[in-house]
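Work Package 3 (structural annotation) set out to generate three-dimensional models for the target panel prioritized at the project kickoff. During this period the team completed the workflow that converts sequence records into discrete structure tokens, so that structures can be stored uniformly alongside our sequence database. As a representative example, we reproduce one entry of 460 residues exactly as it appears in the project archive.
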Amino acid sequence: MSVKMKNSKNTLVAVLAASVYLITVLIYVSFLAAEYSGSTEACEKKFLNVKHSLNVALRTNKAGAKEFSEDFLSSVADEFESFSALQLVLNDKVIFSYPEENAVFNNGKSSLIKYWEETIETSDNESLTLKTDIFLLKPSSIFNKGRVAFIIILITTLFVLFYILFAPEKISTQVSYKEFDEEDNDLTHKNDESDDDAAVDADVADSNAAGDTGKADESSGEKSYDDFDLKKELVSEKDTVPEKNEHLEKIDKLYYEKLSHETDDSNSCDKDSKSDEKENKETPSGLFSPVTGFGWEEYMMPRLDSELVRAASCEQDISLFTVQIENINWSTDYGKAASKAIIETVQFNDLVFNYKNDGCSFVIQNLNTDKAIEKAEKLHQELTEIFDGFKMSFDIFIGISTRSLRLISGARLATESQEALVHAKEDKDSPIVAFRVNPEKYRNYLNSQTETLRNKTETE
């Protein structure tokens, strides 16, 4: 069952929404601009129509009479929404005003209103002055067009909110990861049962090793199984945490010193018998490879185990990345640039280790599956850009596994990460693959393993 990242579709929805907003605003502004560009001639035409209506009313009625006002109003009633102000003045006396008695004329102060004034001589030799302020853009026109634009933007916004709240999580993208069940047959060794027992035994050993005593009697062994089933009992008292952390630091140093000496002795004693197997590999010397700057592959498992215990004691997540860049030569300029980018991503070179001849594995604390995938995407993009700069092309694959609040051994976490890498290589359209735990199945698995170990302890 595959689950693809949300980034691509989220970007598409965001671009579409932004496009609708932008197009709506542009159309709204363009319509208003088009109306404004021809408004001067339209306003002049309206003024001439009002003047004509005024002359018609003067022919049949005397200016200032009630019948005159009624005839004039009926002739211009349809045009009132176009006027900001309209006034008739007879011999310096206002006989009609719109708005009533409060007409204030613009006189060129606003670019959206045009002012006209003209005086007419009546048949009685009286002076009748017509004053008008006419809108170049009618408020009703601005409102109606704005309402349509608002409705479009509102519908688009509601669609985006609906998408954010109710869209499914399984969304397509170019770079994706896959979700595997805890009991996926592809993520287990051939000897599944023995590996599961080893994983539990390793976790129990890690819990016992964090204490002050090196021996475990029957009762302490049973308590370790309970700790395995209920992770929160691993650290029941706050003052035990510092002791574990100090102990882990000592373990790290002892691991490196022990492994370094063992590797040197092994290479000197078995040099002839193992020369064929390691002719393409560097001989471990010191803590870090002089070519890549990574820790040696042999040192990865001890450090991973100690980091898992540290994460469990702090109830934090931890992610293991396994990266393979097929056929890369680390000693070249582009290889050194790639290794430098990887170390900068992890920030601690003692948490990065060689993986075979063309890969690496690294550990990052306090990183869940989703954040690990984001980190992997950024690294994948950065490495691709580096190789493009050197005009080189490599297939980059990344497998990810996280602790997900489980109490598991480093061997099991490494197996999950490496199997995720295998799946990534099988589907080049999904170069980043993450192992996702099924909580229910894992809980059942813990219960079954706890019962099995208890039965073994009782029989012994």
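The radius of gyration is 41 Å.
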